[in-house]
TrEMBL record:
Record family assignment: Belongs to the iron/ascorbate-dependent oxidoreductase family. GA2OX subfamily.
Keywords: Dioxygenase, Iron, Metal-binding, Oxidoreductase
Originating gene: ga05654
Domain Fe2OG dioxygenase: 172-281
Cofactor(s) required, per the database record: L-ascorbate
Entry EC no(s): 1.14.11.13
Pfam families xref list: 2OG-FeII_Oxy (PF03171), DIOX_N (PF14226)
Superkingdom of origin: Eukaryota
The protein's name: gibberellin 2beta-dioxygenase
Single GO MF annotation: gibberellin 2-beta-dioxygenase activity
Reactions catalysed, as given in the entry: gibberellin A1 + 2-oxoglutarate + O2 = gibberellin A8 + succinate + CO2
Length: 433
């Protein structure tokens, strides 16, 4: 592994330009949903919030605030210690101390962090006072994650009640814990308001759920479902825990709950400290839609093991919108996620013009549609109205379509091969339906 002699400079960390002038200014409609897990309607409230946003906060959570404050104070102490002492716990590979480099695919952010494997004492050990605080905190927050998953099962009418939570209470479950420290980023004061610096680039968490606590510094933003993925800043709340739906819960619920895209932007003046517990299943655990949620419905996902999915997720990169401005060249645009053959769900023939053939000559006129776009539209609508007016002038086009499960849980349709008749135009990867 290559170890950077010098931490990367800010100009190697991407600048985000939010689509709306003034940044991600559209607040949560009605505020972040807040759920009290001890109320009788908690199951329904959790499911409603997860369906709408893939995100909510827990109030009246019962986690002792002492444990939270103690860990936060220990974390602040650790991150304030000399760089050489912190480096002795790194580089994160994946566990340990990391500084600006995230994961192993070249992602960078304006942060330093400690990433720890909860059940694996061999993973890079933090200093003992911090370790004790982590153990106390994780013990409490793991209980909260279990209650959330029980509430999801109850709200979805899934029995037994621990159908989901047992995956993360299992002794072999893959639980990860991280403490992130985003130092203030004063250069932001010299940048236009519409720009921000990436603290942690856009992604979905691959596990079932993530439980997050942060100090009072803002920075977390979540993409709103169904609003063209508009970014909504999350107002910090020291008294609450935030829950993020991960990819595995999306698959287990056959897409009824959707994982939430999120990112963190740096703050010009105040440090942000966040502590996140990621509840994942055992590596050998099969992750597939729960039979009770299928009930005759078509499964949107091929079964995979958590181990395989995690491997694929860890090969993917964080996303961002790069902004070539003041602070120097923008970071390279992230590559498309790898189309990993292990994630191929289905492959098979499809016909573009079986019933009402489009004419590819026409389809590629300006304003016409490519073969790929035609396929997507047909698939989305499952009807052929847009083709109805066309005359039967072309032979049916048979194509090979592959459906991939992306690391973020979406399904991607890709035209792999044209079997008959060459359509003009680009063959491209298509967004999911
Ligand atoms: C860039 C990356 C960091 C990450 C592994 C990955 O290649 C893509 C997923 C990332 C993520 C996001 C949620 C958690 O913070 C994390 C520990 C995880 O399980 O997946 C991180 C990974 C990481 O920091 O190693
Ligand atoms: O630090 C935060 O607030 C969120 C970080 C995050 O999304 C992650 O570590 O996966
Ligand atoms: Fe995350």
């Amino acid at each position: 592994m290559v170890v950077l002699a010098k931490p990367p400079a800010l100009d190697q960390i991407s600048l985000l330009r939010s689509p709306e002038p003034g940044g991600a200014s559209n607040n949560f409609p009605g505020g972040v949903p807040a759920v009290d897990l001890s109320t009788p309607d908690a199951g329904q409230a959790v499911v409603d919030a997860c369906e709408r946003f893939g995100f909510f906060k827990i109030v009246n959570h019962g986690v002792p605030m002492d444990a939270v404050d103690r860990l936060e104070a220990e974390a602040v102490r650790f991150f304030a210690s000399p760089q050489a002492d912190k480096d002795a716990h790194g580089p994160a590979n994946p566990f340990g101390y990391g500084n600006k480099c995230i994961g192993s695919n070249g992602d960078m952010g304006w942060l330093e962090y400690l990433l720890l494997a909860v059940n694996n004492p061999a993973s890079a050990a933090p200093p003992s006072s911090l370790r004790d605080a982590v153990n106390e905190y994780v013990g409490a927050v793991r209980g909260l994650a279990t209650r959330v998953l029980d509430a999801v099962a109850e709200g979805l009418g899934v029995a037994p009640r621990d159908a989901l939570s047992r995956m993360v209470t299992n002794a072999a479950s893959d639980q990860v814990f991280r403490v992130n420290h985003y130092p203030p980023c004063p250069v932001l004061q010299r940048l236009p308001d519409s720009c921000s610096v990436t603290g942690f680039g856009e992604h979905t968490d691959p596990q079932l759920v993530s439980v997050l606590h942060s100090n009072g510094t803002p920075g977390l933003q979540v993409a709103l479902h169904g609003s063209g993925g508009r970014w909504a800043p999350v107002p910090p709340d020291r008294d609450a825990f935030f829950v993020l739906v991960g990819d595995s819960l999306q698959v287990l619920t056959n897409g009824r709950l959707k994982s939430v895209r999120h990112r963190v932007v740096a703050n010009s003046l105040k440090p942000r400290v966040s502590m996140i517990y990621f509840a994942g299943p055992a590596p050998a655990e099969r992750v597939a839609p729960l039979p009770q949620l299928l009930m005759g419905r078509h499964s949107e996902y091929r079964a995979f093991t958590w181990g395989d999915y995690k491997k694929a997720a860890y090969r993917s990169r964080l996303g961002d919108d790069t902004c070539p401005t003041a602070a120097g060249p923008a970071a390279p645009t992230p590559q498309a996620p790898p189309w990993d053959p292990a994630l191929l769900l289905k492959s098979g023939p499809a016909y573009i013009n079986k019933q009402r053939p489009p004419c590819f000559g026409e389809a590629h006129k300006p304003g016409g549609r490519s073969a790929a776009a035609t396929y997507t539209r047909m698939h989305r609508r499952r009807k052929y109205t847009h083709l109805a007016a066309r005359k039967k002038r072309c032979a049916p086009l048979k194509i090979e379509v592959q459906r991939y499960l992306l690391p973020d849980g979406r399904v991607l349709h890709q035209i792999a091969q044209r079997i008959k008749q060459e359509p003009k135009g680009r063959i491209e990867a298509l967004p999911s339906v």
